[in-house]
Amino acid sequence: MPITKKTKFRACSDRVFRTAGRVGDALTGRDLPVPLHEFAKSRNIQRLRFEPLLSTAGLAKSQDGFEIYLNTEGPGVDQKAGTVLDAGDDNWSGLATPSRFSVAHEIAHLIFKETAEEGSQSDFFRENADKLEVACNEIARMLLIPKQLLIREVGDRLFDASHLGRLLTTFRVSAEVIVRRFRLADLKSVFGNVSGLIALAREDEKAIRIVDSHSFGHLALERFGSALGRSGGRLEGCAIQDLRLHSDVDRWLRQEEKGSQEIRVPWRTDAPERLPCELSFHRICRVPLVLLIGVKIAGVPEANA
Ligand SMILES: [Zn+2]
Protein backbone atom coordinates (compact mmCIF):
# COMPACT_ATOMS: atom_id res chain seq x y z
CA MET A 1 0.00 0.00 0.00
CA PRO A 2 1.48 3.40 -0.93
CA ILE A 3 2.19 5.81 1.92
CA THR A 4 -0.24 8.70 1.51
CA LYS A 5 0.45 12.29 2.63
CA LYS A 6 -2.09 11.82 5.39
CA THR A 7 -0.45 8.78 6.94
CA LYS A 8 2.98 10.36 6.51
CA PHE A 9 1.85 13.42 8.47
CA ARG A 10 0.18 11.21 11.05
CA ALA A 11 3.33 9.15 11.50
CA CYS A 12 5.39 12.31 11.92
CA SER A 13 2.97 13.90 14.39
CA ASP A 14 2.81 10.67 16.41
CA ARG A 15 6.59 10.85 16.83
CA VAL A 16 6.36 14.53 17.83
CA PHE A 17 3.69 13.72 20.43
CA ARG A 18 5.93 11.02 21.89
CA THR A 19 8.83 13.49 22.05
CA ALA A 20 6.63 16.08 23.80
CA GLY A 21 5.53 13.38 26.25
CA ARG A 22 9.16 12.58 27.10
CA VAL A 23 9.98 16.28 27.54
CA GLY A 24 7.10 16.52 30.02
CA ASP A 25 8.00 13.29 31.84
CA ALA A 26 11.51 14.61 32.44
CA LEU A 27 9.96 17.34 34.61
CA THR A 28 8.25 14.96 37.04
CA GLY A 29 8.81 16.27 40.56
CA ARG A 30 9.76 19.75 39.37
CA ASP A 31 8.15 23.04 40.35
CA LEU A 32 5.66 24.86 38.16
CA PRO A 33 5.20 26.63 35.84
CA VAL A 34 7.29 24.58 33.41
CA PRO A 35 10.69 26.11 32.51
CA LEU A 36 10.06 27.12 28.89
CA HIS A 37 13.53 28.62 28.55
CA GLU A 38 15.01 25.18 29.34
CA PHE A 39 12.84 23.51 26.68
CA ALA A 40 13.96 26.16 24.22
CA LYS A 41 17.64 25.87 25.09
CA SER A 42 17.58 22.09 24.72
CA ARG A 43 16.27 22.54 21.15
CA ASN A 44 18.88 25.13 20.24
CA ILE A 45 16.53 28.10 20.50
CA GLN A 46 18.82 30.84 21.75
CA ARG A 47 16.56 33.78 22.48
CA LEU A 48 13.20 35.52 22.24
CA ARG A 49 12.93 38.73 20.24
CA PHE A 50 10.04 41.14 20.55
CA GLU A 51 9.10 43.02 17.37
CA PRO A 52 5.90 44.28 15.69
CA LEU A 53 4.83 41.34 13.47
CA LEU A 54 1.93 40.47 11.20
CA SER A 55 1.42 37.17 13.05
CA THR A 56 1.41 36.37 16.78
CA ALA A 57 4.82 34.70 16.73
CA GLY A 58 7.39 33.07 14.47
CA LEU A 59 10.50 30.94 14.41
CA ALA A 60 13.67 32.07 12.63
CA LYS A 61 17.15 30.69 12.06
CA SER A 62 20.04 32.59 13.57
CA GLN A 63 23.81 32.17 13.30
CA ASP A 64 23.86 30.23 16.56
CA GLY A 65 20.64 28.21 16.25
CA PHE A 66 17.07 29.51 16.29
CA GLU A 67 15.15 32.49 17.64
CA ILE A 68 11.49 32.94 18.48
CA TYR A 69 9.89 36.24 17.53
CA LEU A 70 6.92 37.49 19.52
CA ASN A 71 4.59 40.23 18.29
CA THR A 72 4.74 43.31 20.55
CA GLU A 73 1.12 43.98 19.54
CA GLY A 74 0.00 40.50 20.57
CA PRO A 75 -2.34 39.88 23.54
CA GLY A 76 -0.69 40.36 26.95
CA VAL A 77 2.69 41.41 25.51
CA ASP A 78 4.14 44.40 27.38
CA GLN A 79 7.77 44.05 26.27
CA LYS A 80 8.98 46.86 23.99
CA ALA A 81 10.06 46.32 20.37
CA GLY A 82 13.74 45.38 20.34
CA THR A 83 13.62 43.51 23.68
CA VAL A 84 15.73 40.33 23.64
CA LEU A 85 15.47 37.57 26.27
CA ASP A 86 18.23 34.94 26.18
CA ALA A 87 17.25 31.32 26.77
CA GLY A 88 20.09 30.97 29.26
CA ASP A 89 18.40 33.28 31.74
CA ASP A 90 15.41 32.61 33.89
CA ASN A 91 13.95 35.93 32.80
CA TRP A 92 11.32 34.14 30.66
CA SER A 93 9.39 33.80 33.91
CA GLY A 94 8.03 37.31 33.25
CA LEU A 95 6.22 36.22 30.09
CA ALA A 96 2.46 36.69 30.09
CA THR A 97 0.24 33.62 29.73
CA PRO A 98 -0.55 34.19 25.99
CA SER A 99 3.17 34.65 25.24
CA ARG A 100 4.01 31.40 27.03
CA PHE A 101 1.50 29.62 24.79
CA SER A 102 3.01 31.24 21.66
CA VAL A 103 6.51 30.20 22.73
CA ALA A 104 5.38 26.61 23.40
CA HIS A 105 3.67 26.58 19.97
CA GLU A 106 6.88 27.68 18.25
CA ILE A 107 8.91 25.07 20.16
CA ALA A 108 6.38 22.53 18.83
CA HIS A 109 7.11 23.72 15.26
CA LEU A 110 10.79 23.13 15.89
CA ILE A 111 10.17 19.60 17.21
CA PHE A 112 8.20 18.93 13.99
CA LYS A 113 11.09 20.29 11.96
CA GLU A 114 13.55 18.01 13.79
CA THR A 115 11.24 15.02 13.39
CA ALA A 116 10.12 15.32 9.75
CA GLU A 117 12.28 13.61 7.18
CA GLU A 118 15.05 15.64 5.68
CA GLY A 119 14.71 16.76 2.06
CA SER A 120 11.13 17.68 1.14
CA GLN A 121 10.39 19.41 4.46
CA SER A 122 9.02 22.70 3.13
CA ASP A 123 6.62 20.93 0.71
CA PHE A 124 5.57 18.54 3.47
CA PHE A 125 4.78 21.35 5.91
CA ARG A 126 3.09 23.48 3.23
CA GLU A 127 0.81 20.64 2.15
CA ASN A 128 -0.17 19.92 5.75
CA ALA A 129 -0.26 23.53 6.98
CA ASP A 130 -3.66 23.42 8.70
CA LYS A 131 -3.06 20.07 10.40
CA LEU A 132 0.37 21.26 11.46
CA GLU A 133 -1.08 24.33 13.24
CA VAL A 134 -3.65 22.19 15.08
CA ALA A 135 -0.94 19.70 16.09
CA CYS A 136 1.41 22.47 17.29
CA ASN A 137 -1.38 23.86 19.48
CA GLU A 138 -1.89 20.39 20.95
CA ILE A 139 1.84 19.92 21.53
CA ALA A 140 1.97 23.37 23.16
CA ARG A 141 -0.72 22.22 25.64
CA MET A 142 1.32 19.08 26.38
CA LEU A 143 4.49 21.09 26.96
CA LEU A 144 2.81 23.66 29.21
CA ILE A 145 0.83 21.02 31.13
CA PRO A 146 2.87 17.79 31.32
CA LYS A 147 0.86 14.68 32.08
CA GLN A 148 2.47 13.63 35.37
CA LEU A 149 2.46 17.17 36.77
CA LEU A 150 -1.19 17.58 35.82
CA ILE A 151 -2.09 14.32 37.58
CA ARG A 152 -0.17 15.49 40.67
CA GLU A 153 -1.81 18.92 40.73
CA VAL A 154 -5.37 17.79 39.92
CA GLY A 155 -5.42 15.16 42.68
CA ASP A 156 -9.01 14.13 43.32
CA ARG A 157 -10.40 17.59 42.53
CA LEU A 158 -10.87 17.26 38.77
CA PHE A 159 -14.43 18.60 38.84
CA ASP A 160 -13.79 21.31 41.43
CA ALA A 161 -14.00 24.47 39.30
CA SER A 162 -12.20 26.64 41.89
CA HIS A 163 -9.33 24.16 42.01
CA LEU A 164 -9.13 24.21 38.20
CA GLY A 165 -9.12 28.01 38.46
CA ARG A 166 -6.08 27.86 40.77
CA LEU A 167 -4.31 25.56 38.30
CA LEU A 168 -4.43 28.35 35.70
CA THR A 169 -2.00 30.26 37.95
CA THR A 170 0.04 27.17 38.83
CA PHE A 171 0.63 26.24 35.18
CA ARG A 172 0.41 29.84 33.87
CA VAL A 173 -2.06 28.87 31.15
CA SER A 174 -5.43 30.10 29.95
CA ALA A 175 -8.68 28.30 30.78
CA GLU A 176 -8.97 27.20 27.12
CA VAL A 177 -5.58 25.52 27.35
CA ILE A 178 -6.41 23.55 30.49
CA VAL A 179 -9.87 22.41 29.33
CA ARG A 180 -8.53 21.35 25.91
CA ARG A 181 -5.56 19.60 27.54
CA PHE A 182 -7.91 16.92 28.88
CA ARG A 183 -8.94 15.97 25.33
CA LEU A 184 -5.48 14.77 24.33
CA ALA A 185 -4.93 11.06 23.89
CA ASP A 186 -2.20 10.68 26.54
CA LEU A 187 -4.76 11.38 29.30
CA LYS A 188 -7.46 8.97 28.08
CA SER A 189 -6.54 6.14 30.43
CA VAL A 190 -5.59 8.43 33.34
CA PHE A 191 -9.07 9.71 34.14
CA GLY A 192 -10.75 6.53 32.94
CA ASN A 193 -12.84 5.83 36.04
CA VAL A 194 -14.21 9.28 36.81
CA SER A 195 -17.44 10.68 35.49
CA GLY A 196 -18.37 14.27 34.86
CA LEU A 197 -17.95 17.38 32.79
CA ILE A 198 -15.63 20.37 32.86
CA ALA A 199 -16.45 23.44 30.81
CA LEU A 200 -15.39 26.98 30.08
CA ALA A 201 -18.39 29.26 29.59
CA ARG A 202 -18.80 32.85 28.43
CA GLU A 203 -21.82 35.14 28.43
CA ASP A 204 -23.07 36.66 25.17
CA GLU A 205 -26.14 38.90 24.61
CA LYS A 206 -28.52 36.00 24.97
CA ALA A 207 -27.08 33.35 27.27
CA ILE A 208 -24.13 31.92 29.15
CA ARG A 209 -22.68 29.50 26.62
CA ILE A 210 -20.07 26.77 26.66
CA VAL A 211 -16.93 27.73 24.77
CA ASP A 212 -14.92 24.58 25.47
CA SER A 213 -15.71 21.41 27.35
CA HIS A 214 -14.68 17.87 28.03
CA SER A 215 -16.81 14.95 29.23
CA PHE A 216 -15.31 12.10 31.26
CA GLY A 217 -16.83 8.62 31.48
CA HIS A 218 -19.77 6.98 29.72
CA LEU A 219 -22.46 8.46 32.00
CA ALA A 220 -21.28 11.99 31.18
CA LEU A 221 -20.99 11.18 27.48
CA GLU A 222 -24.53 9.90 27.52
CA ARG A 223 -26.03 12.66 29.66
CA PHE A 224 -24.15 15.56 28.06
CA GLY A 225 -23.79 13.99 24.61
CA SER A 226 -26.43 11.63 23.29
CA ALA A 227 -29.20 12.88 25.57
CA LEU A 228 -28.69 16.45 24.31
CA GLY A 229 -28.17 15.36 20.72
CA ARG A 230 -24.45 16.15 20.92
CA SER A 231 -22.08 13.49 19.71
CA GLY A 232 -18.93 12.85 21.72
CA GLY A 233 -20.10 15.08 24.58
CA ARG A 234 -18.85 18.20 22.76
CA LEU A 235 -20.98 21.08 23.95
CA GLU A 236 -19.43 24.15 22.29
CA GLY A 237 -22.09 26.83 21.73
CA CYS A 238 -24.62 25.13 24.01
CA ALA A 239 -26.34 27.46 26.52
CA ILE A 240 -25.81 26.38 30.14
CA GLN A 241 -29.57 26.63 30.65
CA ASP A 242 -30.05 23.98 27.94
CA LEU A 243 -27.99 21.46 29.92
CA ARG A 244 -31.01 21.28 32.27
CA LEU A 245 -28.83 21.14 35.37
CA HIS A 246 -31.09 23.25 37.57
CA SER A 247 -33.72 25.91 36.93
CA ASP A 248 -31.70 28.47 38.94
CA VAL A 249 -28.32 27.75 37.39
CA ASP A 250 -27.97 30.96 35.33
CA ARG A 251 -28.84 33.09 38.34
CA TRP A 252 -26.20 31.33 40.52
CA LEU A 253 -23.56 31.78 37.85
CA ARG A 254 -24.34 35.48 37.44
CA GLN A 255 -24.62 36.34 41.13
CA GLU A 256 -21.91 34.35 42.83
CA GLU A 257 -18.19 34.44 42.24
CA LYS A 258 -17.82 30.75 43.04
CA GLY A 259 -19.79 27.99 44.66
CA SER A 260 -20.87 24.40 44.66
CA GLN A 261 -24.26 22.74 44.89
CA GLU A 262 -25.49 19.19 45.06
CA ILE A 263 -28.06 18.79 42.31
CA ARG A 264 -30.16 16.01 40.86
CA VAL A 265 -30.39 16.44 37.13
CA PRO A 266 -32.99 14.81 34.88
CA TRP A 267 -31.36 11.84 33.18
CA ARG A 268 -33.38 12.24 29.97
CA THR A 269 -36.25 14.42 28.79
CA ASP A 270 -38.55 11.42 28.40
CA ALA A 271 -37.67 9.52 31.60
CA PRO A 272 -38.28 10.19 35.30
CA GLU A 273 -34.79 9.19 36.55
CA ARG A 274 -32.49 11.70 38.20
CA LEU A 275 -28.70 11.72 38.17
CA PRO A 276 -27.00 12.87 41.40
CA CYS A 277 -24.34 15.46 40.58
CA GLU A 278 -22.20 18.09 42.23
CA LEU A 279 -22.04 21.37 40.34
CA SER A 280 -19.20 23.80 40.99
CA PHE A 281 -18.32 27.08 39.30
CA HIS A 282 -15.56 29.63 39.47
CA ARG A 283 -15.62 33.10 37.90
CA ILE A 284 -12.59 34.09 35.84
CA CYS A 285 -13.86 37.44 34.55
CA ARG A 286 -16.83 39.59 35.49
CA VAL A 287 -17.42 41.59 32.28
CA PRO A 288 -17.97 39.76 30.06
CA LEU A 289 -18.82 36.93 32.41
CA VAL A 290 -16.35 34.05 31.89
CA LEU A 291 -16.31 31.05 34.19
CA LEU A 292 -15.17 27.51 34.72
CA ILE A 293 -17.81 24.90 35.49
CA GLY A 294 -17.40 21.40 36.87
CA VAL A 295 -20.14 18.79 37.08
CA LYS A 296 -19.15 15.68 39.00
CA ILE A 297 -21.47 12.73 38.48
CA ALA A 298 -21.83 11.28 41.95
CA GLY A 299 -23.90 8.16 41.27
CA VAL A 300 -26.06 6.38 38.73
CA PRO A 301 -29.49 7.40 37.38
CA GLU A 302 -32.04 6.72 40.11
CA ALA A 303 -35.82 6.84 40.37
CA ASN A 304 -37.18 10.31 41.12
CA ALA A 305 -38.36 10.03 44.72
ZN1 LIG B 1 2.21 27.82 14.02
Notable features of this structure?
305 residues, alpha+beta, Arc Repressor Mutant, subunit A, Beta-Lactamase, 2 domains, five-stranded antiparallel beta sheet
Number of domains: 2
- The helix-and-strand class reads alpha+beta
Subunit arrangement of the protein: single chain
Order of H and E elements:
HHEEEEHHHHHHEEHHEEE
**Strands of the largest sheet, in order across it?**
6-5-9-8-7
What is the CATH level 1 assignment of the largest domain? Alpha Beta
The chain-level mean pLDDT equals: 92
The CATH architecture assignment of the largest domain turns out to be: 2-Layer Sandwich
Our Rg estimate from Cα atoms comes to 21 Å
CATH topology of the largest domain: Beta-Lactamase
Number of helices: 10
Major β-sheet, in short? 5 strands, antiparallel
* Name given to the CATH homologous superfamily of the largest domain: PAS domain
Bound molecules: zinc ion
